[in-house]
Design brief:
single chain
Length: about 90
Amino acid sequence: MTGTREWPVWAVWTVLTGTSLLGFLLAEGQAPAKVAATAAILLAAVKIHLVFDHYMELRWQHRPLRQMLAVWLAVVTVILLGGYWAA
């Protein structure tokens, strides 16, 4: 298992909590709606990636599975952002 970083659970939880608070502050703050929505989608993608790796334990799975899920997450994120900005 070379090349993978193992974070302590408290660090992952702190990042997930921090990104949730940041998303809330952007949505409820003075940020323009398009910026806040884009940031929320990107923060959600980061959180999903962390949950995949650290709580669903995908870091222990074969590299093709991890890569497939990373590509899927990137494609879904681009589709969501593209659809939002095109509307």
